Amino acid sequence: MTPPRVRAALGAAVALLALAGCTRPSGPPPESATPTPRPAAGPWGRDRVVSAECLKGGRFVAVQVQAWDPDTGKPGASRTFDVPAPVAFWQEPGREAVPTPLFDLCRENPDEAVYPSDALERVVPRVRAVFDRDFTRMAVVLRTPGGNGTHVGFVDEKGLTDLTARDGHPGPGVREQNAVFAPDGSRVWFTYETADGRHRIGSRAVSGTAALRDEGPAADTDLPLVVVGRPARGVQAEMVHVSPDGGRMTAWTDGLGAVVLDVPGASGVLTGAAAGGARRLAGCLHAVGWVGPDGVLCRTRTGGFRTVGAVRDADPGPVLPASGAGGDEGLVVSPDGGRFLVVEHPPGDPYEGFRGFRVAGTAPGAPSVRLESGAANAKTLFLEWR
Fold it and tell me: pLDDT tens, 370-380?
């Protein structure tokens, strides 16, 4: 993918999260650390990988969510979300860039990135966050008619709902961005700017009046937003994967790189300073996902993959060989932690040099099998293994 952009500097006045260390407490987990429910099979089925792809025609734009059999590569159930004209999904000439994960999915020009990194291990959790748990709704950012502000809303089978407009008369200069869904689909979360210039995290319910509920501090930065925990909290952070028990998560921070830490107890911004009690994932360039309660699958700086312990004094697993393409990126890990999906392409050339997908094992010696599918292509982004 394209090189990371220079990250915007965070002001000293940004409120930081008080994050606990990663030592696991004894006794039963607190309510916020209850295991994340495995999604119901629904129309997607069990043991299926689910992808999203931006479809564009002469007069339409849509996002197609598609289930695939990881053993045969055959497509299964699908759902299509229309993307109406007000929705921000690409960088319009002469207009300010709008932070929304839909840019990751739909933009054509690599230089139009609105987040710090195009590594797919970071893109996948960003885009996954715009959907609810069962992919029935998609959170969006809308440009206002005059182009002076942005609203948030969602798209479902009934069409587009502008939640900001539903909340009375928000005014022409409202700036609500980074729209993502709570996993249960009850609220759209986002970052917004107050009248006095402060940056905050907020949410709006998808039903009722959709009144703004302030959730905590945000930052004027290009960090994306993700909703974690029970009850839900919004965290501005990159490369977030929540552990199977719901108590910890991976993230990327300046200075520390890839880390694992306790899921924050309140909404806010994750920075290197705020993650001072986190455990650094040594040798981990990008985290792909959890392979069990105490292990994280990582891509290394040499292009291979290995399991890194998420608890102290755990030895890292052996490096799994890469395909030889030189630009392999990890996408999703199976629920049992035994397999993961990889996209193959030369370094820095994900489209023209696209070589396909393969299913690899997380243990040494496990078979690596090409995903034989004529329908999946370079713009197919796999988001979840259910």
Answer: 988 778 998 99
CA–CA dist 235, 363 (Å, integer): 32
Alpha helices in 107-216 (DSSP H): 120-128, 163-166
d(CA 236, CA 371): 33
Ramachandran bin of 123, using left for φ above 0, alpha for ψ from -120 to 50, beta for the remaining angles: alpha
The mean pLDDT values, 10 residues at a time, for the chain of 386 residues are 36 33 39 57 82 91 96 94 92 81 85 83 96 97 86 96 88 87 97 93 96 94 92 95 94 88 92 72 93 93 88 69 70 96 77 83 88 87 96
CA distances for 208 relative to 26, 123, 133, 186, 284, angstroms: 41, 32, 21, 11, 44
Question: Which amino acid is located at 353 in the chain?
Answer: G
Selection from 187, 190, 139 nearest residue 160 by Cα: 139
Q: What pLDDT, in 10s, does the model give residues 158-202?
A: 999 999 999 986 666 789 999 999 999 999 999 999 989 999 999
d(CA 240, CA 140): 20
Whole-angstrom distance, CA of residue 280 vs CA of residue 71: 34
Please list the residues that pair with 338 across neighbouring strands.
none
Prediction pTM value: 0.86
Task: Residue 332: name the closest of 295, 288, 269, 301 by CA.
Answer: 288
User: Contact 237/228 with Cβ under 8 angstroms?
Assistant: no
How far apart are alpha carbons 121 and 174 in whole angstroms?
32
Give the residue from 168, 209, 172, 206 showing the smallest Cα distance to 190.
206
Q: CB atoms < 10 A from the CB of 309, how many? A: 17
State the Cα–Cα distance between residues 105 and 100, nearest whole angstrom.
10
- C-alpha to C-alpha distance for 224 and 270, rounded to whole angstroms: 10
Residues 39, 185: Cα–Cα separation, whole Å: 12
Closest CA to 14 of 178, 171, 218: 218
